[in-house]
Design goal:
Elements: E1 10-18, H1 25-38, E2 41-50, H2 62-75, E3 79-82, H3 88-98, E4 101-104, H4 105-116, H5 120-136, H6 138-145, H7 166-197, E5 201-206, H8 212-220, E6 237-242, E7 248-253, H9 263-268, H10 270-273, E8 281-287, H11 293-306, E9 314-319, E10 324-326, E11 329-330, E12 352-355, H12 364-376, E13 379-386, H13 393-400, E14 402-409, E15 412-420
Helix pairs in contact: 1-4, 3-6, 4-5, 5-7
């Protein structure tokens, strides 16, 4: 007789401190709950304490600790997740006082990354981020997490080194850095090839779960995992698309951004995130149905600034138009797009903007038209007669440019076209 067993979800209590700095703590805690759900945990409570500052030893004050302890016992919770990055002392002391595993937002995000990394590069980056974090939190963290052998914060390629000493961690970090340097070299070679070809590159950026992968799948049938969860996809994907006009574009998906994205993550994934810096165009996808979409836009631009990515043409695609009555107000079911529903909605940082549904394809034709216009701005007009023995050069124009006129004459092939500035040397007489 077969008995079907179902893995029990960890019960977690979420904890935040409101220090009065203007942060929407409740909204941040709601997002933390989404992260916990993505990590396959069951949220059984959310608690907030208002304080002038974080308690240096325990994150929350003594009175609140007693309240949280009571709550943990009543709900039979397995862990407490704090919405801020804790110091080793805070994590150790709070765990000791509550008698359960205590982790912070950074550990939770790293755990999700560990679960979702698929490629060799992604796994290397996740392990590197985990080890850097654990190296700085070694004292106390091993003691607290050793209360339970599994669950959130203990997954991923770096889990066996949780109890390792700093020397071992430093050695492993050195090995990972060396491997990632080789990966970056390969990435640079591929990037150089794309630049040489002259095909415009579009980096899809945005807040996590804004619909970037869904859009990439719709445009290029990339087959990227697309789920209604935070950080459902982690690994970078590049796909090509040929427009009806013959113009080619390369689309690169990037790691989603999030409020309080840990610096260890930014540092480890810098080479991946910097793909956006080498793109010709940034396609900023925004979930218009999210009530905090404006705050999410701000986080995206702040992260881009932290990565020194600026000066790129930006096309903002306000996504999920089929799910909104007005921006930030979500329908229960999809409905027809109404222009008056989004009147006045604007991204002041963008050069152009469109309203789309990546799921249904609504507005995608306009998006591609805008991308073609922006990409065309980097094209150079040429008018040239190619000798018949150089007819092969026309293939470059057809592939990477726009052939406007082609006439066979006695002295050769007369061509009028638009070509990428980067590839102009390939058509010169010296080649």
């Amino acid at each position: 007789m077969l008995v079907e067993t179902k893995k029990r979800k960890e019960k977690v209590v979420l904890l935040a401190v409101d220090v009065g700095d203007g942060t929407d703590v409740r909204a941040s805690l709601d997002e933390l709950a989404e992260l916990a759900d993505t990590a396959d945990a069951e949220v059984v409570g959310k608690l907030i304490q208002a304080r002038e500052s974080f308690h240096p030893g325990t994150y929350i004050g003594k009175g609140k600790i007693e309240e949280v302890l009571e709550y943990v016992r009543f709900e039979h919770a397995d862990a407490v997740i704090c919405d801020d990055e804790l110091s080793p002392a805070q994590m150790s002391n709070l765990g000791e006082a509550l008698g359960v595993k205590v982790i912070d937002r950074t550990v939770l995000i790293l755990d999700i990354f560990a679960a979702h990394a698929r490629t060799g590069e992604g796994k290397l980056q996740v392990e590197l981020a985990q080890l850097r974090y654990r190296s700085s939190h070694l004292i106390g963290m091993g003691h607290v997490l050793s209360r339970q052998g599994g669950g959130i914060g203990t997954r991923g390629p770096g889990e066996t080194r949780l109890e390792a000493d700093r020397r071992q961690i430093r050695e492993r970090i050195s090995v990972l850095n060396s491997k990632l340097k080789d990966v970056v070299k390969n990435r640079d070679v591929m990037r150089a090839g794309r630049t040489e070809s002259g095909v415009p590159t579009v980096a899809i950026v945005g807040y996590t779960n804004a619909g970037k992968s869904t859009l990439l799948n719709h445009l290029t049938q990339a087959g990227v995992l697309s789920e209604d969860k935070l950080f459902a996809t982690l690994d970078t994907t590049t796909r090509s698309l040929e427009l009806e006009s013959g113009q080619k574009l390369l689309f690169t998906d990037t790691v989603g951004f999030i409020h309080k994205l840990p610096h260890t993550v930014i540092k480890a994934f810098r080479s991946t995130l910097e793909e956006a810096g080498y793109a010709d165009i940034l396609l900023h996808v925004v979930d218009l149905s999210n009530p905090r979409y404006e705050e999410q836009m701000r986080v995206v631009y702040e992260t881009l600034e932290e990565l020194d990515i600026a000066g790129k043409p930006i096309l903002t695609a306000f996504n999920q138009v089929d799910m909104v009555f007005t921006p930030g107000v979500r329908r229960d079911t999809p409905g027809p797009f109404r222009q008056d529903a989004i009147a006045g909605t604007k991204d002041p940082r963008a050069d152009e903007q469109v309203f789309i549904s990546a799921k249904t394809g609504e507005g995608v034709d306009q998006l591609l038209q805008k991308l073609e216009e922006i990409a065309g701005a980097g094209m150079i007009d040429i008018e040239k007669v190619f000798p018949f023995d150089q007819a092969g050069r026309l293939q470059y124009i057809r592939t990477y440019g726009k052939l406007l006129e082609e006439t066979y004459r006695e002295d050769g092939i007369y061509v009028r076209a638009k070509v990428p500035a980067e590839g102009l040397h390939l058509l010169s007489d010296g080649k």
